[in-house]
């Protein structure tokens, strides 16, 4: 996969994450946006979708509670999403079309 194709697949997820960090996109909408990235998820091994879903479930749970009463730190979860996007980019650039699990 070319760098341009990889960048195109990651544009919306990165923009949504940036909006969330800026306080412009609620956690639920961020999760919905990322789960809707079917073209991106289809290019990655299934374990990436599983990992993303686990992070998003925790993020949605954390958003329901104040930072003090939740066992998940929203900041840590956003950092986990950034890490997930970086790993997804590496996988795509390394030939993520091979769906090893």
Key features of this structure:
single chain, 101 residues, mainly alpha, globular
Q: Can you walk through the features of this model?
A:
It is a single chain. This protein is 70% helix and 0% strand. The chain is mainly α and 101 residues long. It has one domain. The radius of gyration is 14 Å and the shape is globular. The two termini are 19 Å apart.
The tally of structural domains comes to 1
Tell me the strand percentage band: under 5%
Distance between the first and last residues' Cα: 19 Å
Radius of gyration: 14 Å
Q: Helix segment count? A: 5
Given helix and strand content, the structural type is mainly alpha
Q: What's the assembly state of these chains?
A: single chain
Shape: globular
Give the helices and strands as they follow along the chain.
HHHHH
Q: Can you give the mean pLDDT?
A: 88
The amount of helix comes to: over 70%
Spans where pLDDT lies below 50 across 5 or more residues: 96-101
Number of DSSP E strands: 0
What profile does the largest beta sheet have? none
